[in-house]
Amino acid sequence: MSEKISRRDFLKLTAMGAATTAVMTGCGPMSRYVVRRPYTQMPEYNQTGESTYYASTCRECPAGCGIIVRTREGRALTIEGNPNHPVNRGRLCARGLTAQQGLYNPDRIRAPRFQGRSNPATPGRDLTWDEAVQVVATALQKPPQRIAFLLGLAPDHLYDLVSELTQALGAPPPLRYNALAALEGRTTLIEAVRRLFGSPALPYFDLAQAEVTLAFGADFLQSWLSPVTYTRAYGAMRQGNPRRRGELIVFEPRQSLTAGNADRWVPIVPGSEAHVVLALGQRVAELRGLPVPEAFRAVRPEEAAQVSGLPLEQLETLAQTFATATRPLALVGGSALTQPNGLVTAQAVLALNALVGNLGQPGGVFLSAAAATPTPLAEVKALVERMQAGEVDVLFIHGVNPLFEVPAALGFEAALARVPLVINFAAFPDETALKSDYLFPDHSPLESFGYQRSLAGSDRPAWSALQPVVVPLYDTRATVDVLLAAAQASGQALLPYRDEVDFIQQKILPLINAGGFYTAPEILTFWSRWLQHGGWWTPAAGLPTPTLERLPASFGTLTPPTPPAEGAFYLLTYANHLGDGSGANRPWLQELPDAMTTVTWNSWVEIHPRTAEELGLKDDDVVRITTPYGSVEASVYRYPAIRPDTLAIPFGQGHTALGRWAEGRGCNPAQVLPAGHNAAGDLAFIGTTATLTPTGRRRPLARVESKEGVYGEH
Amino acid sequence: MAVEAKPLETAVPLPHAEEDPREHLMFDPRPREVMNRMVMEAMTTTSRRYWAWVIGLALVVLVCLLGAWGNMILTGMGLAGIRRPVFWGLFIVTFVFWIGISHAGTFVSAILRVFKAEFRRPFTRAAELMTTFALAAGALYPLIHLGRVWVFYWLIPYPNARWLWPNFRSPLVWDFLAITTYLLSSTIYLYLPLVPDLAMARDRTTGWRHALYRLLALGWRGTEAEWHRLRRAITIFAFAIIPVMFSVHTIVSWDFAVGVVAGWHSTIFGPYFIIGAILSGVAAVVSILFVLRSTMLHMDYFIRKEHFDALGKLLLVFSMAWAYFFFNDYLLTWYGGEEAARRILTLHATGPAAWVWYLMLICNVVIPWLTLWNRTIRRTPWAMFIITLLINVGMYAERYTIIPLTLGHQRMPFDWGVYTPRPTEISIVIGTFALFLLLYLLASRLIPLVPVWEVQEGQMAHTLRKVGKAEVPSVTELE
Amino acid sequence: MAEERPAKWGLVVDLDRCTGCNACIVACALENNVPFVGEDEVAYGRALYWIRTQRYWEGEYPEVTPTFQPVMCQQCGNAPCEPVCPVYASVHSEEEQINLAVYNRCVGTRYCANNCPYFARVFNWFDYELPEPMRSYLNPDVTVRRRGVMEKCTFCVQRIVRGRQKARAEGRELRDGEVQPACVQACPAEALVFGDLSDPESRVSQLARSQRRYHLLEALGTLPRVTYLKGVGNHGG
Ligand code: SF4
Ligand code: SF4
Ligand code: SF4
Questions:
Q1: pTM, two decimal places
Q2: Fold of B88-475
């Protein structure tokens, strides 16, 4: 490993840095420069009994919140928000707050390993990193077209490096898949922005200053884009606006946390969102005295009312509320996008915002400066087909657990078995890791360098920095380093970087002159400030304003939802605090009551109490939910805030691997999701119908609420 | 003053003069020596069944009480079924139950003594023993239910280097003081009248028993001066222990009543608990008397139908008094209309555990009222045994209603919770019942269960006089 | 050095901002070494949340809406949990004007828990062992409680003390907002505001005078230091 600069140099550099606050320090136990020593030989940046704080970035979800980790005696204690970070301003969500339970999780993979995947009789064995690098180097020499990389949404620096690597190799670009992004329809949103505003980007909604907000499916308080940003904005929208308390109206078939906090929840028929938005758009245009754009004429209001189950009068009231508001705003995401009509809905909602003229206005829509790189399901499907066809010789997996997160109907598992060499950089023995040939564990995020540059919640151009806050606990190695070393070992001069830090420094070099709130004469000083502040961003807020040249004549074809057959129900799944399921091995996330149901440590299926009564189902009865793609079992939760024709199962449980706290709890809805996708290529599962069969068994859910006290039942 | 027999002017006719007055112990005198021998025989005869019981109970105490408790100390209170928000469960229920039972002895022996109720004479001892042993069993619970019993001594006011005293504002400290006072005074009160009987036993035994009784009899010789002092002491204690008894259960009730817990915060809890305690205590005396009478030699001479009859009447009165307090507690709280308290009372009567509440009412009110007015039933020992057992079941249900069933439904419905007793605590409760019975069984063969001198004293004051052809019972006032 | 004014710490919970996201629960648990207990124990009401969000439902479908109310120890000025503790393990602190749980003095009678009308107190039913190396993240500023001991929200008193010491060392008074309990610091909706109620200018004092204010179970006279601000509109709270 490189001895590029010593820790002592770092100290000097930090001293040179302007304001070294007591809170954040620019130097830390950066893995490559610090050797592991007993506590009795404390490094000088650590004093016994004194806390040291390091700024870094949360990697528990793709939002990229800034964190400050309190450490003492070389241990990471608590995770706090970085008060200056543009994404979260010092606030965090439950997932981010439990990151140390990932770092210190007893089930981590502790060393590189070979597993006898093809032949279970072959015993696995631990490897040295030199052997591991050799394995990767050999794999990289395979025909480039037969190499595939499947990455998660974090970290961005690894994605950037792999992109360069695949380019240099001539291999297909890496895919990035994440269940959260799939469930919120991120690609659809980006594609809609591309179609309307010209270039692919994520929109940024200025919720804080909006006065009337319509949200179509976007559960922005719990999982959408950047939950902490939008929860902060929600608080400000409610009580931070001196003029009036913002109003929120949410259209969702099942009340999410966001809908639960709304002033009005409109339980819309799943799949009819586009109809409603179009109908609303017509009336809003009329009410505002504007010509009704052609694309909005695709449905008649009566038709929309009929399809969505909303009375015409209600549509009219909603249109009036929105059209007459001072600062109207419409959001879209989640269940409104992950459906066949998703792309239409997304475009229609963006266009609705354009109609009321809030593009680039306070309380309106902006374009996020963030890079937009998630891969839609359609491309994952293409990869699966290549794997099936035996066109992939080596598959590299990092930061994603496809056997858990990807709908099982896609056939990933069978395809994986056909890939001769699967190299997984997972930190945990998750489902996919168990089915891989090699496990080359990456550091945990709290032991890693890196950056996130797709910050959907940032109101300004920003990069968020990661740095190790503790010395790596185990014999793990940064994947970037492994790839760089392998690239070097393969003999070709593929990449001009010495190691991970060198790579990151070169990547952030352009930021020195990009007008951030700090700068430095050269990279080393810049680097220490970058670490000290936990990233780089501009001093003033400011995002590009979307410009709408011309609305297309049509947003695409509309398919009205087909009502479920007799005895069948719409089925949907959503992310709660367990996110994409990678958090299921954090015991405190398991112990945390689900916000809406207060259930802990398990999955459940939400059924409207009236429906349950008709079916003779009681709380905690185990039922089997069957779709054409598979079936799962879950305990009944009689949920008063869901359409009577809809069932919902939370995402994230149902692991068969991933350690002691995750395994064998609840069910994984990915088992019953379709593999279909919408026009943007995103997973389209809204509209799937399922049947429900009681199993006759009961499995009581561990709820925190008293059923007797809350529902008055004994 | 010695016993002075003062003949009454007119003879008092017995209530049921048509029956033979000799059915009454007081009018069926036997020579002192005969009675002494009977008591000694009863004390020294043990059957195989007796030993089987002793060994069985000892095993239960060992396994169910000590074993389960030890395991709970090492593992944690979680082995019991208590939970948030029901932080007190069977342990406290049983604690209150035993403290209630302990009122038997004091009530029977002190109050009836002070009021000169003659029928008390043969069973004061049996009742006092119950007090002591019930207290012993009950006093374990404050320890058992401590989360960290190994530092129990922090509850005791003892001088220590850090000047850390217990919090005298806490009813638990009052409890501690009241119970220790009661345990001490009731033991002394048990011991005092025992001295002449121990001396009697000393004079009729050999071997280890003799040595034991010699030690315990404190050199009693039965001189006039000794009798004089003994009677003074007993009188003083009889008066002194009554307020202690009242205070103990009042303080136990204050554990609940001083709290803000809805359904507990009631000014009537003190007397309500005392009446309940006396009801359950007297009922327990009847149950024990039945057992003694049917298992020990000669006990049918000392314990007769008249005693069941008299205690039955008392029970009826106390059952009525209990019902009166219960009614007061419930009706007035319910009328007061504080939402939380009202909800709890409604839940008691209509909730999923309402059967406990109805069990309480049936056993404490319905059954006594339906049966105890009937003289024949009152004079049928086995019927009385069943009725009194049921009364104690009812009193247990009362405590269960007051404690876990009230705690589970307080002011924040989101946090309600239902308590289910778990094996460990049930086992410990069974263990203390076994402990009580074991102590009683052992004591029944170690000390004279009938205070012979008291019986004889009574018999001397009761005579049958011939008035013409009829025999008229006459009673002499004792001072 | 500045003369220290005794503070009267207080918390305001703005229910109109609170979304019920429960981040506060986790933030609290990891700051205060609160153990997790597992599914069966949670199901039996033995979770050790120091703060929990009470979620009720209002209305009927489709007008049904949840109401969220985070409830932690209210730090009663007149705390029912204090007089009943026989060993002074539940005491009032002069300096912070809050109610302290003295873990190493507690004998575990659980009387205080019965007498707390807010159910704010939780009990260590067992020893909750953390597997290695999880113990590494335990906060050294907070005692790890063993079995048989009551515990509850302390307004993160360790942070108050740390803040006060720092201010003292720098010879100044504590600034408003300088000390934040973990829940306040994490709350993404900024629904929680913490500060000194004895300073009429502090943010918490200003908010506590809001017309939307109320106290939980006010009629009991416990004088809570936590003030709730009602939700507005048909969004309950
Ligand atoms: S929103 Fe995402 S990035 Fe932010 S704290 Fe939560 S998990 Fe971490
Ligand atoms: S963290 Fe804030 S918004 Fe979330 S539940 Fe707690 S108080 Fe409410
Ligand atoms: S809320 Fe409960 S625990 Fe907290 S001070 Fe008040 S009574 Fe005590």
A1: 0.90
A2: Formate dehydrogenase/DMSO reductase fold (1.20.1630)
